[in-house]
Structures
1.
Amino acid sequence: MSSKNTKYRKGKNQKKKVGKFVFRFSLSVFRMIIIICLTISFALAGLAGGAVFAYIKTAEKLTPDKLTLEGFTSYVYDCNGEMVIPLQGSKNRDMVDLKDIPENLKNAFIAIEDRRFYEHPGIDLRRIASAITSGGAHGGSTITQQVIKNITRRYERSVERKVQEWWIALHLERNLSKDQILELYLNIVFLAQNCYGVQSAAKTYFDKDVSELTLAECAILAGITQNPAYYDPFTTNGRENIKKRQEVILGVMKELGYITEEEYQQAKNEKLQYADYNRRSADVVTNQSYFVDQVVIDVMNDLMDAGYTRDEAYDTIYNGGIKIYTTLDPKIQQAMDEVFLNEEYFTKVNTKTSMPPQAAMVIIDPTNGHVKALYGGAGEKIGSPLNRASSSQVKRQPGSTFKPLVVYGPAINERKITAATVIDDAPVYLNPNNRNERYPRNYDWSYSGLTTARYALTKSFNVVAGRIWDEYLTPDIALDYLKKSGIDRTDERYLSVALGGPREGINPLQLAAAYIPFANKGLYCKPITYTKVLDMNGNVLLENKPQYTIVYDEATAYIITDILKDVMTSGTGTGARFSGGMPQAGKTGTTSNNYDKWFVGYTPYYVAATWYGYDQNTSIQSAEQGRANLIWRDVMAKVHEDLEIKQFEEPPGIVKKTICTKSGKLASELCSQDPRGSTIRTEMFIAGTEPKDECDTHVKVKVCEAHTDEYGRPYLASLYCPPSSTSEKVFVKRRVPITNPNDFAAVGDKIYECPTEYCPEHDLYAPYNKNNFQYDDEDGNENNNWDSNEGYYEYLEQEDRNSSYFRDNYSNTNNSKDNNRDDRNNRDNTRDDGNNSSGHMDNRNSGRDDEKKDRKRR
């Protein structure tokens, strides 16, 4: 018993010892963890303190010369590094002394922007804390900090920038009085419409000096600064927004004791009289070109992508002392300017409108996407007109200039067609909403018949483009190529896109860029107007490098280029071709009702697109039809005057074959005998897509030329046609016949289609023999000799001569001839008097038997 108790006590003591050990060990680990955490915390604090010290040490000191707006002019340079123009807001920024600024205006800004301005040392800890706890509902910057931000042009959101801004604010407050800081602020603050400072804003919005502003107007100006774009008084929404903002500011001013209740009510109910924005715009003349306008937009957008607000980006461009290096080529721009400033190209001849004609043009280097020149309207640029060359607001229908982009380029690159593929330019019914309507139609409502893809693009046939889109491509494929060429219309999956009628149009910059792959070995390069932007200290703010996308194979781009060369030598673009021997390729475009005229083309050096038309849709008159071509020609002629002639470089993978343009196959001997002239030409193909078979579209048949059918074709010669009226002729035979008589009558090549009826004049049984002729066999052995039909005639004589079917059909056929064959009908009827009499038929059959026996004896 004692032994057991002893063992029990020993076990119990052992457990206690283990428990104590675990406790001590855990406590040691915990202490170690605490020590490590404290060490890390101190280290982080040290690092943070070191970082703050480093931020303060590297903070930019505000010297007196930087406390004015002078010296912050930005500059624009051309592609050669030469200064083009300074960018500054001086024309809309007037300095004003604090003593000339109304107290109400000062108090309005202080009330809404920094109510403790006269109390804090440069930073407001209470405002910062409130901004943090409110989740960013309002900013924490004081007026002093806003002055610093505008002077240093630093807008990035970072701890470093904020710490440095606080330190500089404290330093600035020790060196300047509150009134000096307020004066700086009221002359720097951005108030929309390119207004910097309250004086320019007062003149812009109320057409009066700042000293003359009423309390209500002061509250308006103070409200703009929070979000100039949102509170812009010269926009409809902005005017509504700023009125609400004004009432908030007046309320705060009353709360702080700056105004009385009576003043508050009077200002709140005052009817605001804004200046005339349109009159102001007309009075403002800027020496900033269309090109520089677009550069400013591009730089602004890229700064916003980098984290700037729109107003910060705008302020940086015009007051930040930056340097913008552009792609502008002054020689090319001068050539364009000379044409667009020449009134002869824009003589008013259109009697349908009082508007002046307009035009726009863009030239791009396809190898790197550099925009070399652009012009956004006819005549001298006055004020800030619409930039028709590149503005995102410009959305003109592109017409047939879209066909290479969404039809021929994709179809050839996908190996769906070749330049030699033959499409029947005949009536089609592709309107899903009306299958009885011929759609699409060609511009002149005619149909050419069998034609190659090359010829169809050269002549800009709508029907062929529509059939390729419908029968060879899919919208997904076509629109994907268009998107890779810089134009996204993936939600427009209808046929009219293939014909150049998308729902949303384009501008000349987009069109010129979309043709870059054809001129640049299949590579699209996003167009750019500048290469880099440096801040006032020479640091890189933005850099613009070429961005390439593969769109087509090199071989495809070369074949399309070769076709578009034909457009300028024998197609719709002959009026755009300039002399001098420089290779040129291009495409015309005309939209519905002649609202728009386009020409887009390129040389081995440049791609250019020109648009001509009216700001509001108006049909272009015949006297001005060729002006887009003419403008393109004369500008490009000047541009290429001193350039060495060079050719489009043929890439590997091109195969050339001699083909027939009516079949797309290898040419045969018959192809050279086409009655229209030889249809043989040398065509180029992507290796592997060249034809292997010989033309089977051309056929040679014996015809009787004594009479013609309703389409003007001779009939097939029958056994009874006299040798004097028969001959062998070459025709074409469609692989897919046109079965609708009205559609067949509409095609222009119907007279060259092989006839299908035998001569009814000499063969009494021609109607029964319809379609029973043989073409040349593929091996060239003729199989349409008349003796080969002997068995067929025997069959008629033995089996069907007396059948009612034969009598009825023969009778019906003869009686259904049209009016232009009445003379033959009369003769037929004379021979066939008593056509329905079986006795008469027997007599005629007997005579036929005698004739056959005589023929056999001969």
Note: Residues 1-10, 42-53, 279-285, 770-858 have pLDDT under 50 and may be disordered.
2.
Amino acid sequence: MPGENLSRDEARERAALLSVDGYEVSLDVRSAVGADAGDGGPRTFRSVTTIRFRCAEPGAGSFADLIAPSVTAVSLNGRDLDPSEVFDGTRVLLEDLAADNELIVDAQCAYSRTGEGLHRFVDPEDGEVYLYTQYEPADSRRVFATFEQPDLKAPFRFEVQAPEGWTVWSNGVGQLADGVWRFAETKPISTYITCVVAGPYHYVTDTYSRTFDDGTTLEIPLGAMCRKGLAPHFDSDDVFLVTKQGLDFFHDHFDYPYPFGKYDQAFVPEYNLGAMENPGLVTFKEEFIFRGKVTQASYENRANVILHEMAHMWFGDLVTMEWWDDLWLKESFADFMGAFSLVGATRFKDGWITFANRRKAWAYRADQLPSTHPITADIRDLQDAKLNFDGITYAKGASVLKQLVAYVGQDAFLEGARRYFKRHAYGNTRLGDLLSVLEETSGRDMGAWARAWLQTAGVNSLTPQVLLDAEGRVSELAVLQEAAESHPELRPHRVAVGLYRRGAEGALERYARAEVDVDGPRTVAGDLAGAQAPELVLVNDDDLTYCKIRFDEESLATLRDGLGDLTDPLARALCWSALWNMTRDALLPARDFIDLVLRYGGRESDIGVLQMLHAWANSALVHYAAPDWRETGERLLAGGALRELRRAEPGSEHQLAWARFFAATAAVEADLQLLLGLLEGTEKIDGLDVDQELRWAFLEPLAAHGVADEKRLAAELARDDTASGKRHQVRCLAARPSAAVKAQAWAQVVESDVLSNALVEATIAGFGQPSQRELLAPYAEKYFAVIERVWAERSIQIGMDVVRGLFPGLQDSEGTLAAADAWLAAHEGAAPALRRLVVEARDDMARALRGQACDAAAG
């Protein structure tokens, strides 16, 4: 992996020297089918690349990027070069460049099993082979020779020879002639968003049509595809509905027609990401095709991702950041626009509740890690870039943009976006390019705002301070702002402060609200003076800013006694989020948070919030509860989940959510036998349809507790002999409570590269069972002994999966903390990205230990 890295300095030097006129890429993937070569090497395909480019300093040298097992031929300006002299496995050396150059590289590239480059998947259900590419940030070099950096944009022409009967797609429109698929030339785009999808995919089409105010009409061919085995479950009508709603929304607000011709969306197997914004051919993980019953939260999430990727067609594809430092210029905007358009254009009108509850939780965690960074980050190389697709770049950045809209106004913000697209179309930008248009449209100085919000790290806490007069009315209400010692920046916040009291029917409702510009450690909300004394003060009501909400003592007591009485779903979601942050910060005992979930979770109307509460409650038990209380907490959670499962409306999505939570918490014999009975049909809960996906959800705890053995899991796979079934079975097999099972799972992931990325992920997920802490204890020492080797030998994606997924977080003790510190001290020269992953996991454990101490003190 180290030889594959590219530094920012190298990229800047190359960009100053070279400009690219175009690529022609010819791939022959007919080798994707048939038997392996049998020589022990990787399965390969032929890749021939022609790059035409200019050099600002004739006579100078540079390099092209290529990761391939072998290179057959290299030609530069008609001069044949010896591949053994110019290709080192990751780069092609280019010397004595002319003003105008033509490079031709003929290589044997390897199919991927890790989801990086050209991924090859064999469907166990029918033996069909499916291919797709995934490149971000820098894996197109695994498929063709390239200048692998975002600011060397160029038009691309692709042609692909594929097995007979296959269909091939790329960014442009394609046609099959004489056995070769040839695709229309693209607009100038970055290498990382080029794409090829090939195989016997199930493909559905539709058309989007839009007539603009000037009378012109735009027609966009739409396509959606998935594996044939998933076709019976593919609700393409809903995918197309959201797609058309999104295109209408962005055309209404961006005043720049969709620029990339067709719009295909491919749902592909063994995908590492949620989705990728390749222009004209967006790729998604196929788990967005639902094989069983799911809640509306799943449909909302899919719609959000569809819209997020669509926003990238403008923010990221049309206008692209110069280097990964400004990754936020695409990801923060797409994350914000995903929620903005979700609420504005689709049936999911509560999208901002999901954003406040789910997306921001990701941001708050990331922003309190030692590795937190400004939204505009310092990205030294590609390994840094890979790790910065994180909660800061996505969710915090989107939260800050929401704050920016409140600061400059929605009209000025959108007008700034429109000018930005027109001014920089098909180009590359930095932070200043965006700030300049926003200054134009808003009339505000964006420099101070950018310094406070984009160029500093850390999250502020806002706490209300209420003073009452003799008559019981508010004499003064102030907002106190605090920051961590490590990141002391106090930022300007535009917030709404809401005052709540119980009404005649006992409902907890807002009766007063004021917007306040918080600046500095203490800000008085003058408009609230004279209001009735509140029972609850909610700082950041309506979720206008990015902060951690704290409560005064009266407000916290009100929530303990009546959180479920809050009638506004967004206010309720914000309170839940604040209570979870308090739990993570060791300000609220884990058992108290679990008690709140048990008391009020059953009254939560928003299904997405409810499912988030289930995840948080489980995390509170596993990580933040005192060890001697865990068994009690487990029993309480499982009992509460079963109670709510039986109370829920038969057939409802709430019933389904409680069924899944019950399975996740079941541990005692009676609960496990109930799960077994539901599987076998000897037990029934009115309205609960135990479909195939729910069967696997029930089987994992049964496997983890020794109730479902290998034979039973094999029988279930025979019942569901699909790619999805195989992933479930692998996870369940690794979950079994046996030393031999754990040793085998460890060897398959750590000592072998036979498993695909999806099966590595499934094995890791099954390996780490909270009920098996003692069984897993020996692997703490093994982990620290192998991670540097794993990082060096495996691809960065698998390296990240192993280092994150196998960290001995369940061995939460001062001893494990010391072992992590010892490894860090002894490996100061290790890859910075690897050290970052260990530092983050170590910090999560330290936070868990503080939470456990808080919880123990409450007992």
Note: The longest helix spans residues 832-858.
3.
Amino acid sequence: MKNFKYLLWTFLATALAAGCTDDPTYTRGAEEDPNTYGVYFPTQSSPTEVEVSSADPLEVTYKVCRTRYIDAITVPVEVTTSDEGIFDIEPLFFGPGEKEAEFKVSFPNAQKGKEYTCDIRIVDPHYISIYGPNATSLSFSVIRADWVPLTSEDGSTNKGKWRDDLVSNLYSTSSSDFNPNPEIEVEMYERDDKPGLYRMKVYNAAFMEALTGSPKFSYQSRDVYTIIDASDPDKVYIPYQSTGLSLLTTDGEIRIASNVSENFSMDESGNQYGTLKDGVITFPTQSIMLELEKHSGVFYYGNMSGLLRIQLPGVQAPDYTVKLTKHEPEDGVVNIDAAFSDDAKLMKYALYDGVVDDGQASLYAQDLDAAKADPDTFDGSISESGTIKIEGLKTGKYTLVGCIYGEEGGDLKGYAYVSFGYVAAGEEKEIDLTYGLETSNEFAGQGISSDNAVKFYAYGSEIESLTYGLFRTSSVSGQSLDDLLDKQGTKLSDEELENLNAGHFSTMLTGLNGDSEYTFALRVNNGYYTRTMSQTHKTTGTFNPGLEYYGYSDYLANGSQPSLKKLTGTTWNYYAINLMDDEPIRRRIGEVTMYEDPELSTSSQPVVRVKGLSGIDFTSGGEALGYYIPNTSMFSGYTGALALYADGEQTTGIYLGQKTYLGFMPSDGNGIYFSFGMFLGAVADGYLYVVASPAAVDQGLMFSYLFTGSVYDLFSLTMEMMLVDPEKDMGGIPAAVGKNIALMREKIRNGFRPRNFVELPEFGGGQPDMPAFGGREAINVGVNRIPASMPTLKRAEAKFSVTSARTADAGTEMTFKRIGKKVE
């Protein structure tokens, strides 16, 4: 286990204190003061590692709390500082009845570039609980530092590039879009008093999109700066720090640190520094240590592939890559395409039996390069983008490993490899897979039946990968099944593939709707060939409109939209996902009522007040406006019941004593917009659904969320909003279906604060082109799974067993799994 260097003195002091005691007898602890004020330091909103620029006030404010709060008190403290005369600390004063107080620490005499530390302790037992769990001391550090843009030689840019090889060493997903080594642009800054000390924001939304290829993964990011110390170009290292990025809440934030003596107690001969050469920073393989906030002290290897790289602004690092792409065997031939980057000039290759992983391929490439003087080492070479044709082999699995060079006779610059299946001429290697969907009521006692679920089973041999998805048939018309599986497909885990190849894989796909037809798409690969196939399945029972999601194209014609009298005369059951919930699912969150506003309505344009959409109880106000759509010239050409409207005055309210705004937020979470952001319309008899305004979509804004909050706080963030006539309501939204819908959407609640309020142009009327509303979005609904037994009328040798719960939970593509290699 790694020990932090700066913590080691604490452990030594504890050990020395224990080892030097002269009295082995037990001494009773001090009595707790029954009248103690219970003063303590809570979790601070201000940082304890304070960095201020010359333009910032040289001060920081901290909080202090107490459990007995009747009297006014001033709390005595003991202060220890690294330097005299630096810190001025306000008294810790509580007024009568105050539970919490703030005090200011200023440091006007702090010199630029020097770090100072301060420790404030409360020791008087009359003011603290001696044996309580709360902190009675506060330690912090401050430093004055100015960061200036690090620009290119011509001064045109301060943007460099960060290629990551850290996060993917801890986490992975089965998504086909996952990129283990994303490269992003970063604005770089340098400490003006310490040349070579750089900082940049790396682990943010841009990084996550480059990593996952999708905005649908749940994560939290504080968007903090990442520090690199390259003050010595031959000893570049990453100081111990948090990335601010959390992919699993059970793990907390990812921390990083170079494996060097500046961070850990270790022999200096073991240091693994990086280097800065020609404007490019690189690090040795496995030289970065990774730690998880909630598993402190346990470290994982980072930079496993040695690909972590930082390019300073204006620098273009050489790119020695060759991308190899295999084709399926045909007539005893396998073609492998080789795509060369600009700097790669030669690739020599050799063929190996079997399938190897990246680590083995790297070792093979090094061995090949070491023996490159022997003309028999390589099987061939290629010097530009082209195709390598392979034939004359026995049927089996093979791997082509290539050594990449910048010139003939030069040093090894990289390697490439690809594994493939080869089928000799005249032979066959067909995919051995039997699969199907089966109606089942074996879980009817749990409410899972042929009305809302289907059993998927599969068995075969030599299956290396299988990806599937279950889509509503009406949504996949004219779409590529392969594209849908690439974006949303559920990929079987290694354990599930083992079960499949052993003859016993099955699972129940739940959360379906009654009397509905679904298309099941499946893509399978046996190492030789890939095949995509599909079949349809129809559930039994009765269709429930409340279980669906809808788009603008699902709106009924205006002649079937509810009348103004129906809208205002009904108390609607209100279902929505509120992302402020601990577990956001679509649920009944209240009622919605409407009434006509006589001041805003005209004879040609009725306007109603819509109460309840936010799902919170306002002290006053908080109603949205709805402009009636059918038969009004303002909305000529549009379909729906109401165009929902919000602004900074007419739709505000008072909640928790704050002026609270209603607004519309786009799917990227960027800003709060006023004016017409959403439409409300009938999608079935008695069912109204809220969708993004088609007029806004035509302007490039897809409004997915109704925001309710002040300029400081977020109170509710609702989506998938549905109003149901109580007389037509078929029983609400089951939790499993709500979770299914929630998994498909972005979870943007965490850390959200409104950055700006934007007024959209007034609604102009007229029917625009609306290519975004060409049909209902196809969504893989087969992500909620439970274990199931195998069908009984299959192979005679089939095994009857239950898939493990761990396997059953592996279906969703919206989460990460930890794969890190621990440091022993």
Note: The chain has a mean pLDDT of 85.
